[in-house]
Design a protein that fits this description.
This protein is of the alpha/beta class. It has a single domain, classed as TIM Barrel, CATH 3.20.20. The protein is built from eleven helices and eight strands. The chain has an eight-stranded parallel β-sheet. Helix 8 links the parallel strand 5 and strand 6. Helix 4 packs across helix 5 and helix 6 runs parallel beside helix 7. The longest helix is centred in the N-terminal third of the chain and has 17 residues. It is globular, with a radius of gyration of 19 Å. The model has no long low-confidence stretch (mean pLDDT 94).
Length: 274
């Protein structure tokens, strides 16, 4: 009915296009500092895990982020959000994961929720307290998992996150450790997302299916049995090709394998300081 007047007229001259807003379903929005100094190590062939063991990677960003004020973190994140919006992104998922103490993770969740209230982009917060066990934590992985589990009721009470996430992989958390954390998260009413099988095929994608996760992300080393399990459980394969690209790797997720298995596939940026 073209006689109706409840529509907007948009001038698409000057090489413009009108389309639906992009949804970026895997970002690490709130952090301080950057890791551009690691580029030379990548060029020399150092792997992600080798750089991390040398004091770089996530722990470097954790140190920078813990030292930043809420105001600084918000200022930096707004700059990033403005660039995302300029390129057509109107909704993002935003993970924590660069605090890795109860206090710092809550700070990141607070900043993320405040940004959602004041920026045009819709932001869906995810609690990624189990990104890795931080270098200054004196206990073992199980001790750290328990510390993060203790945060879940308060995060839920304050409605600060829609999802929880955990990195299930070689060099991060095991299947057993991750199952304990994700079980507690489900009991607290969170939906689940998983960093899965990026470095090695540890069975994380299959675990995502068994736990009823919304998505399994990365999946560089996932195999056909993983894709079939995800299809059966309706788990989204969230593929992040920008990650191996910036790591100078030639190993990408096997999109045809997921497509042929009938898995719903999403494509996201994995925006992060790497």
């Amino acid at each position: 009915d073209y006689s109706r007047n409840d529509y907007d007229i948009i001038n698409c001259n000057s090489r413009k296009i009108v389309c639906s807003g992009f949804v970026d379903s895997h970002t690490h929005l709130v952090f301080a500092g950057n890791r551009s100094h690691e580029l030379s190590m990548k060029i020399k062939g150092k792997s992600y895990l080798e750089i991390a063991k040398a004091g770089g990677g996530i722990n470097h960003t954790v140190r920078e982020t813990r030292n930043a004020s809420e105001e600084e973190l918000s200022r930096l994140a707004i700059q990033r959000l403005d660039q995302m919006l300029l390129h057509g992104t109107t909704t993002i998922e935003a993970k924590t994961g660069y605090g890795l103490t109860p206090e710092s993770e809550m700070k990141l969740l607070k900043v993320t929720n405040e940004l959602n209230n004041k920026h045009p982009i819709d932001i869906i917060p995810t609690f990624l307290g189990c990104h890795i066990k931080p270098e200054d934590f004196t206990g073992n992985n199980w001790d750290y998992i328990e510390l993060m589990i203790q945060l879940l009721p308060e995060i839920k009470r304050l409605n600060m996150a829609n999802f929880v996430d955990i990195w299930v992989d070689y060099g991060a958390f095991s299947i057993e450790e991750s199952t304990a954390f994700l079980t507690a998260a489900k009991e607290n009413g969170f939906d689940l997302r998983i960093h899965a099988d990026e470095m090695e095929n540890v069975g994380a994608a299959i675990m995502a299916a068994s736990m009823g996760a919304v998505s399994a992300d990365h999946l560089l080393k996932a195999e056909a049995i993983s894709a079939n399990a995800m299809a059966d459980a309706d788990v989204v394969a969230n593929l992040l090709p920008g990650t191996p690209f910036v790591l100078m790797s030639n190993k990408y997720a096997n999109f045809p394998m997921f497509r042929d298995a009938g898995v719903t596939v999403a494509l996201s940026t994995d925006f992060n300081p790497n």
